[in-house]
Amino acid sequence: MDELQERQRLPQEAPSAAMVADSAESERLNVTLPAGLMNRLKQHALAERRSCSSLASFLIEDGLRRHCQLDG
């Protein structure tokens, strides 16, 4: 408890964007897709009732998992 009170007394700087990004459990990625591929992603996302970003994240993770199995 004393340690917490001491921390509150000391002036603290706001964390930088880089510090926040480094501590994040997930990160953002921007990807440019050809129109046809984006349309297919949208169709599948609608069919599965999920967002395009959620489906893209799943597909990337699944693809990496399969790729590593083939390599290993």
Count every beta strand, where a strand is a DSSP E run of 2 or more residues: 0
Proportion of beta-strand residues: under 5%
Following the backbone from N to C, one meets helices and strands in this order, namely HHHH
Helix content: 55-70%
Major sheet characteristics: none
Shape: elongated
Number of helices: 4
Radius of gyration: 20 Å
Overall mean pLDDT: 84
The parts where pLDDT drops under 50 for at least 5 residues are none
Keywords:
72 residues; mainly alpha
Briefly, what is this?
This protein is mainly α. The protein contains four helices and no strands. α3 crosses α4.
Describe this structure in words.
The chain is mostly helical. It has a domain at 35-72. The chain contains four helices and no strands. The chain has helices at 2-9, 17-23, 35-47, 52-71. The protein is elongated. The N and C termini lie far apart (50 Å). The model has no long low-confidence stretch (mean pLDDT 84).
Secondary structure layout plus pairing:
Elements lengths: L1 H8 L7 H7 L11 H13 L4 H20 L1
Helix pairs in contact: 3-4
